[in-house]
Amino acid sequence: QSFHRTMTQVADRETIVGDFEDVDLELLGKKYRLQRRGNEFWVEMEDPEWQATPQSPLALRVQRRIGLLTGSHHMQVYWVPSRAGNAQNIFPFAWLIADQRWVPFHNTFLRDPAIAPTRHIWNVNCINCHSTGGQPRPDAKTRTVDTRVGELGIACEACHGTAHEHIRANQSPLRRYQLHSNAKPDSTIVNPERLPAKVSSQVCGQCHGIKWIPNREDWIQNGFRY
Length: 226
Description:
This protein is of the alpha+beta class and 226 residues long. It has five helices and 13 strands. The protein has a five-stranded antiparallel sheet, with no helix packed on it. It has a four-stranded antiparallel sheet with strand order 2-3-4-5, with no helix packed on it.
């Protein structure tokens, strides 16, 4: 029931809160057309992966279905599929839930206003904290990504650790009743409330304090090992 669980979701009628009812938006001279088609949400826009060439100096307009969304508390950010494997490119507007309006995504974070909007890819950015067991897995040779996650959203194991042994051990009702009656902690799972303050802070800090990733080459293939 927490907002953690809904921080990354597949885009559909049950999860999207933004207005897609034939909406026209414009940003930096580029136009966007939003539409809802049944249970699907689409945007007509310049091809985000287009690169100018002498033969094709003008960007092609394409239609892309919204694939994923992140956020469900203050705002929602939307992602469109890429041709580079399962990469997800950002849609450059975010929906402010309280204000019920679209705003440019690059204006939703504190940043130098002189810096031009940059390209964001869910697979190598938001995956850090908005999924569970995320592995970006880009391939430099093919310039594609084959991203994997344990679960979309911030699920139980993101804070409580892997649960194989916990599930196996607690198949026994007797064990569960004994733990409850003795008020003893369950050694097969991590409970941040029972950890020393420093370690408990590390559990939260793996997302809420993230800035630099040590051994980034290992992380990019295997995700966090904490």
